[in-house]
Amino acid sequence: MCIRDRLNAIIAAGGTTALETPYTPERLADRYLVGPTVLCCFVAADRATGRLEGFQTLGREDGLPDDIGDIGTFARIDGKQRGVGSALFAATRERARQLGLSAINATIRADNTGGLTFYGKQGFQDHSITPAVPLKDGRPVDRVNKRFSLGVS
How far is residue 78's CA from residue 150's CA, in Å, rounded to a whole number? Predict the structure, then answer.
């Protein structure tokens, strides 16, 4: 399964991402892989099978200072992957430091307990809440903004 198919499966399942519109190859490349706002993207694959386990992207986001990157983590939803997110974050964190960023922002739906737990375990701290952001169906869901300090000033 390619990155686009993996991401679109996550979107179709719903509940763990604020994304609601499936991605075309071009839109995916521009937004998360090689577009002008992308700082880096790392992919995790199973060594034995080559199966894509997940990917993590870091980019610039409107409304954030230039020294803060915005992270997105997407792991396959059809089973557990032990250590995939942590391995991806180790690479992303190192690249963010090389780029001179001061922090990494993660914005997570408040009802995504798995995502909130993952980023908390990586050391992200609650920063702010964006209340009642409507989904396509009109249902309001808060967004939790977490920050990871890179200790760069």
Answer: 32
Q: Residue 36 belongs to what domain range? A: 3-149
Q: How many domains does the chain have?
A: 1
The segments of the chain whose pLDDT lies below 70 read: 1, 79-81, 152-153
Q: Is 54:76 a contact under the CB 8 Å cutoff?
A: yes
CATH number, residue 111: 3.40.630.30
Q: Indicate if the alpha-carbon torsion angle 128, 13, 55, 82 is positive or negative.
A: positive
pLDDT number for residue 18:
85
User: What is the 3-state composition of the chain as percent helix, strand, coil, each rounded to the nearest 5?
Assistant: 30, 35, 40
pTM of the entire predicted model = 0.92
